[in-house]
Write a structure and sequence with these properties.
The protein is α+β, with helices and mostly antiparallel strands. The protein is 26% helix and 30% strand. It has three domains: 246 residues, 2-Layer Sandwich (BirA Bifunctional Protein, domain 2); 132 residues, YbaK protein (Alpha-Beta Complex), CATH 3.90.960.10; 96 residues, 3-Layer(aba) Sandwich (Rossmann fold). It is globular.
Length: 572
């Protein structure tokens, strides 16, 4: 593509509203333009990149045996009422009415539509398993859309849904798509991790997220240094501590005055002790599945944070929230900040880390007072469990290794749904014995634009984007230094034609602008190889090749250029 013909409005500076690297560079490189909050137009360069992502996704999904369909963006409320999500999904769903006053939504996801499609056609176990996917526009009315394509309201997603007669079959398919996703992100040239994750509002028994690793990632993930275990910190299990040694040679409890010292930071500073030596006590109001309410105390080391998801799972709670100050004082006899486990009459749960504290400090359940020399097993006896957010150095639950902590950007998520939707919507089949059973489902999503944006977050420098070759909008970028020089343009035109004939995608900067301006745009756009053609090199029968990813410029004979580029971008 000649730049004189291409719609590529690059920008010298980042718009003030752009916050993250990918948003800034997509705007500056002329890939996207904002239409409304969280809604963007894709310009030609953006289209080329997202089509590359789509092509890899489509290829691997087809290879895994999935079949492509296209479902509507506008969906009637009746299907969502059947599943029970019309009211539950919340304000992220954009709802609208047609001229007949019938309610519809802009689909944020398509579980209901695909279940309706399959229940109308599948009757027998002989028609299973079945895996259907689409690459389609979604709309979720995010409360705070930001970061360009990273967190938009309208976005393109590949979503797939599989249907099965048995749990064993569903498990096999889940593992096959796990492999397919691994292949997809490897082929995209990205460093990533498949991590165990919470299912969230989609539902299901378990799930995996695919995280592109980047320092700017919104999510924290841990991975073991010795085995392949990895998980989102919200999901990550932590290996249980060994049973703590018996309580010996620890002085008796001692009260100490701590006037006005409420927070972990204040108390540790006042007493001149490490935060890890404090026992943090939180009082929660828990609503059980049977709607009964109770209050519980939760203990953590002072330097760690509670993983609420783990506590909800442990207690089988329907919901929970931190107790109001008035309830804390009624239950413990002290205001928040001076609460501790000694003498509490409510159930007490503690993270494993607390079992290792000997001679610790905690609230005394008296105003402006703390206790010294506190020991679990002597002064209080909680129920121990894995309750903290995972972090670097924590024990792996699968081996003797420890965790390292990384930042990640979620680009894919797969779920084992079970019968959540098939039961509520009456999607059944007849098994080999003629018995009617609900279909077992899994679902699998990939954010197309989000994957492109994540690639930029992981691959950039001060000059601009550094595209992994599989996602690059073009394979190479020809820069003709002086278009008024006839020998230069003769070589540039000939090389442009030759490279295209070889099947390479070529961007040709034939604009009448300064060479420095062209070079800056080339770095900004981030095509893997730049070919600089000037009067000086043409005289020697050569051109200058420079790889975008930190390569040194080198001279290459004109007749060898195509072969060299094919080696670099993997076409040879």
């Amino acid at each position: 593509m000649r730049l004189t013909r291409m719609f590529l409005p690059t920008l010298k500076e980042s718009p003030a509203t752009a916050e993250v690297v990918s948003h800034k560079l997509m705007l500056r490189a002329g890939m996207i333009r904002k239409v409304a909050a969280g809604i963007y137009s894709l310009l030609p360069l953006g289209v080329r990149v997202t089509r590359k992502v789509e092509g890899i996704v489509r290829d691997e999904m087809n290879r895994a045996g999935a079949q492509e369909v296209v479902m509507p963006v506008v969906v009637p409320s009746e299907l969502w009422l059947e599943s029970g999500r019309w009211d539950d999904y919340g304000k992220e769903m954009l709802r609208l009415k047609d001229r007949g006053d019938r309610e519809f939504c802009m689909a944020p996801t398509h579980e209901e539509v695909i279940t309706d499609m399959v229940r109308g056609e599948v009757r027998s176990y002989k028609q299973l398993p079945l895996n259907l996917y689409q690459i389609q526009t979604k709309f979720r009315d995010e409360i705070r859309p930001r970061f360009g394509l990273m967190r938009g309201r309208e976005f393109v997603m590949k979503d797939a849904y599989s249907f099965h007669a048995t749990e064993e079959c569903a498990e096999r398919e889940y593992r096959e798509i796990l492999k397919a996703y691994t292949n997809i992100f490897k082929r995209c040239g990205l460093e990533f991790r498949a991590v165990e994750a919470e299912a969230g509002p989609i539902g299901g028994s378990f799930s995996h997220e695919f995280m592109v690793l980047a320092d700017t990632g919104e999510d924290a993930v841990v991975s073991c240094t010795s085995c392949d275990y990895a998980a989102n910190v919200e999901r990550a299990e932590i290996g249980a501590s060994e049973v703590a040694a018996a309580v010996v040679d620890i002085p008796a409890l001692e009260k100490v005055s701590t006037p006005g010292q409420k927070t972990i930071e204040e108390v540790s500073g006042f007493l001149k002790i490490e935060q890890a030596s404090l026992i943090k006590t939180l009082i929660y109001k828990v609503q059980k599945q049977d709607k009964k309410e109770e209050f519980v105390a939760v203990l953590l080391c002072g330097d760690r944070e509670l993983n609420v998801v783990k506590l909800v799972r442990l207690l089988g709670a329907g919901s929970m929230e931190l107790a109001e100050d008035v309830d804390v004082e009624r239950i413990t006899g002290a205001p928040a900040g001076f609460v501790g486990p000694v003498g509490l009459k409510i159930p007490v749960y503690a993270d494993w880390g607390v079992d290792g504290i000997r001679g610790g400090v905690t609230g005394a359940n008296e105003l402006n007072t703390h206790l010294l020399n506190v020991a679990s097993g002597r002064d209080f006896t909680p129920s121990y469990a894995d309750l903290r957010l995972a972090g670097a150095g924590d024990a792996c639950p699968r081996c003797d290794g420890v965790f390292e902590l990384r930042r990640g950007i979620e680009v894919g998520h797969i779920f084992k749904l079970g019968t959540k939707y098939s039961e509520s919507m009456g999607a059944t089949f007849l098994d080999e014995n003629g018995r009617e059973k609900p279909l077992i489902m899994c679902c699998y999503g990939i954010g197309i634009g989000r994957t492109a944006a994540a690639a930029i977050e992981q691959n950039h420098d001060d000059g601009g984007i550094i595209w992994p070759a599989p996602l690059a909008p073009f394979d190479c970028h020809i820069v003709a230094v002086n278009i008024k020089d006839e020998p230069t343009m003769k070589v540039a035109d000939a090389l442009y034609s030759e490279l295209q004939e070889k099947g390479l995608e070529v961007l040709f900067d034939d604009r009448k602008v300064r060479a420095g301006f062209k070079f800056k745009d080339a770095d900004l756009i981030g095509v893997p190889v730049r070919i600089t053609i000037s009067a000086n090199t043409v005289v020697e029968g050569s051109v200058e090749l420079k790889e975008r990813r930190g390569g040194e410029a080198r001279l290459v004979k004109i007749e060898d250029v195509a072969e060299e580029i094919q080696k670099i971008v993997g076409e040879g």
